[in-house]
Amino acid sequence: MAQSFSLGIRQIWEELSVMQSPGLYWVNVDRQTDATLLCQQTLAAQAATSQVALICSGEKPDKLLAELASPALKKIPLYQLPEKKAALTHFCDDLMRALKPQNRLLILLAHASLWQTFTTEELRDWASTTGHWLHRQGCTLLILSHGSGVNKLKGQLSTQHRILNGLSSLQWQQDSAQYLVNWWCTKNGINANQLLTLFAGESGWQGDDDGNQPSPTAIRSDEGLYLAQQSILEGAPPLSANWQLLESNAQLAQHGMLTLSATLIFALYQSDEIDALAHQIHSLRRQRGNGLKIVVREMSASLRYSDERLLLACGANLIVPHVAPLSRFLTMLEGIQGQRFSRHVPADIDALLHGLRPLQLKGYMRPDDFSQAVISLMNNTLLPEDGKGVMVALRPAPGLRAEQAMTLCHLRRFGDVMTVVQGRLVLFLSTCRINDLDTALKFIFRLPVNEAFSNRVVWHQDVDITSEIKRLAQNANIPLATQATTPFAPRQSAAVADSPQERRQPVAFTLATGAQENKHVEP
């Protein structure tokens, strides 16, 4: 009988948690703590056998065994791999000298940066060589890579299905994790393109309880029903008996709570409606499941890039821009019929709002606070790279001071901040795209920008914005340490600068006329 090993993840299909022998399996994990938990869980699942060995890179392996209760696991072979490319090159030879690998499960826990110097071809050759060695020895290797660099590894490994027996990733989603299986081979066959939700429990990762999922029969009961806010059809009557028009988004959300797979269409007119709409969509998606098709039609220009990301993260299937005509909107509705929502929606919407809108500031800020806030936003990993915002420096027209130009600027949106540095008005527009900059400036300033300012300089990539902020901070004599804190953290330098100064004592002066003043002039 062929030997197999388990990942130890409960309440998921066996075909996605069992590793065959021989075999080479690779799991990419975003966070080190999650990778450590999965490693401990896999080790605990092998408690009945001693045929397992642990290799760690960057940390001591005995720390992982401290929390495991099984006495058998205390005796398993432990090895530490140097964080060097040469260590991977001689990986198989070193294992042959260190232990007898036959019929074992080998677990390699390492930071993704260990492979950062490998090209795609070198990584493929290494995996192919290691896979042949595993087949000769009849053993299984599970690689758990974690930390920054896993996204690059995913791209390099995504085409290696002829070499790897399994490739998957574990992505943290604030209150749970998504287990995305690219492919996974066992003796029973191959499973591919599977997405599961895992929760961290006392005994490790476990799958979601499917008992609360609606049955396929119930999901199909209202499949063809359309519930819409009445203005989305632009005055036209309901298109068929399956269409119901409601007066407001609130009524639509209330009626949507009685459906399981209907299409709900919300109307959005103003940007101040976005938060309320996000809560409605989040409640519907969390309570009524993945069968609903939730659509937002923008009736006037009111959505920014960050707002679209927020609504999609809350559970919307589709967002229709205001420039799309009615005929195009109806075609887009047809395109989502029969679909099921597959993305994870966190249970805590406040955490979601905080993650996607971390900069709850707007308006004028002092140069040091401005630099600190922008740097903290650049360090936010939840926002996309080179999509966090645009920074623009405006030099006022001759005769106009930067402080006077601020009176022309009206920042209405959280995340849009400004300051004055070296006679220039510097604005940071959070999550604004570079191609939307002219439109944004037109709404911000009361006068045409080209008339109020003589020139402007724009930065839109994260690296360029960070470099310019550091340069501005140096010119303004801002301590560099303040740039690494959050905008709300107290700073020692600010406390000293804002402390009340010692009151100066008045001094009496005698004013004299010109004639009297001449008498006191010495020859």
- Report the biggest beta sheet as strand number plus sense, adding barrel if it closes: 9 strands, mixed
- Fraction of residues in β-strands: 15-25%
The number of helical segments is 19
> What's the rounded overall pLDDT mean?
82
Rg over CA atoms, rounded to whole Å, is: 31 Å
For the secondary structure, the number of strands is 21
Shape type: globular
GO molecular function: cyclic-di-GMP binding
Protein name: Cellulose biosynthesis protein BcsE
InterPro entries: BcsE (IPR017745)
Region (Disordered): 489-523
Brief description of this entry?
The protein is α/β, with parallel strands linked by helices and 523 residues long. The protein has helices at residues 32-45, 62-65, 85-89, 91-98, 120-137, 150-157, 216-219, 249-256, 274-288, 305-314, 326-335, 349-356, 367-378, 402-405, 437-444, 449-452, 462-475, 492-498, 514-519; strands spanning 4-6, 18-20, 23-29, 52-57, 78-81, 105-111, 140-146, 166-172, 177-186, 189-201, 204-207, 226-229, 243-246, 263-268, 293-298, 318-320, 363-364, 389-396, 416-421, 424-430, 453-459.
